[in-house]
Amino acid sequence: MEGFLVERYWPGVSAAAVQELGARLTAMSGPTAGFVASTLLPSDEVVLFEFRATGEAAVRALAAQAGLRCDRLVTAERRSSGDDG
């Protein structure tokens, strides 16, 4: 499984709308793609959605099923301050 970020430009976005979409993504996650977390950037009207998936196509399929428009989809690696490499 790889990490992916979906960037969504979302004018007028609210925390409640992001939470609702996150709940849908979680409920619809499966063996090929799973929702991890979201980050709301309210001043930019942007939300980043993090996924673990077998590939880009699996992320796009889950996003489409949940009603998430993918303005940008990129591979990503999550690192914490203690991670090497």
Summarize the SSE layout with pairings.
Elements: E1 2-9, H1 15-28, E2 33-41, E3 46-53, H2 56-66, E4 72-75
Antiparallel strand pairs: 1-3, 1-4, 2-3
Helix pairs in contact: 1-2
Description:
This protein is α+β, with helices and mostly antiparallel strands and 85 residues long. The chain has one domain: ORF SCO4226, nickel-binding ferredoxin-like monomer (Alpha-Beta Plaits, 2-Layer Sandwich). It is built from 2 helices and 4 strands. It is globular, with a radius of gyration of 13 Å.
Whole-number average pLDDT? Answer: 95
Give the name of the CATH architecture. Answer: 2-Layer Sandwich
What fraction of residues sit in β-strands? Answer: 25-35%
The SSE string, one letter per element, is EHEEHE
CATH topology call: Alpha-Beta Plaits
Query: What class do helices, strands and sheet pairing give?
Result: alpha+beta
Q: Could you tell me the number of beta strands?
A: 4
Helical run tally: 2
- Major sheet summary line: 4 strands, antiparallel
Q: Please give the order of strands in the largest beta sheet.
A: 2-3-1-4
CATH class call: Alpha Beta
Q: Give me the Rg, rounded.
A: 13 Å
Please give a handful of descriptors for the protein shown.
single chain; 85 residues; alpha+beta; Alpha-Beta Plaits; 2 helices
Provide a concise account of the structure shown:
By secondary structure, this protein is α+β, with helices and mostly antiparallel strands.
